[in-house]
């Protein structure tokens, strides 16, 4: 598996990963009717956003989008959003991307990485992030409308890089 910067020509493969996750509406706050064009603008935005892919034999398995969490006085803390193709889940792809992000963001001078909205019912993601050093610093009750479970909480998770 190789991790590299995403390129514009990766978008069709990335959309194959992003679209079903967005349409399901269970793990991200994106609107379920998000268009491919708008998603591309968000996911492949220019600096300070960075987008990475994990690929194996030329097949894109997963992607991560990183950026400062907030502008101005909050730009020393980063954020990241990960999406993994269903066929690649359970293979350590997200963990490898997360470690890449930690190294990259630390080298860029970020002091921490904050996930603003980890759906509490996404237990596999919560367990992974906790195993990799993130901790839940708070939960906003009923802040997410899950199509299958109704109102559920959103965790804010944080990992220090210093």
Automatic annotation (TrEMBL):
**Gene3D superfamilies, per this entry?**
3.40.630.30
Q: What is this protein called?
A: GNAT family N-acetyltransferase
Q: Which domain of life is it from?
A: Bacteria
Known SUPFAM superfamilies for this protein? Acyl-CoA N-acyltransferases (Nat) (SSF55729)
InterPro entries named in the record: Acyl_CoA_acyltransferase (IPR016181), GNAT_dom (IPR000182), Mito_N-acetyltransferase (IPR052742)
PROSITE patterns of this UniProt entry? GNAT (PS51186)
Q: What sequence ranges are listed for the domain N-acetyltransferase?
A: 1-162
């Amino acid at each position: 598996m190789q991790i590299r910067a995403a390129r514009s020509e990766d978008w069709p493969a990335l959309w194959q990963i992003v679209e079903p996750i967005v349409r399901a509406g269970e793990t991200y706050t994106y609107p379920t009717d998000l268009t491919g064009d708008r998603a591309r603008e968000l996911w492949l935005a220019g600096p300070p956003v960075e987008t990475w892919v994990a690929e194996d034999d030329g097949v894109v398995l997963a992607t991560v989008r990183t950026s400062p969490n907030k502008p101005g006085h909050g730009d020393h803390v980063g954020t990241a959003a990960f999406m993994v193709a269903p066929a690649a889940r359970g293979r350590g792809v997200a963990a490898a991307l997360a470690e890449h992000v930690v190294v990259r963001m630390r080298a860029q001078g970020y002091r921490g990485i904050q996930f603003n909205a980890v759906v509490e019912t996404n237990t596999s993601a919560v367990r992974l992030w906790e195993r990799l050093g993130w901790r839940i610093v708070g939960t906003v009750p009923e802040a997410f409308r899950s199509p299958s479970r109704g109102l559920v909480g959103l965790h804010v998770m944080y990992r220090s890089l210093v």
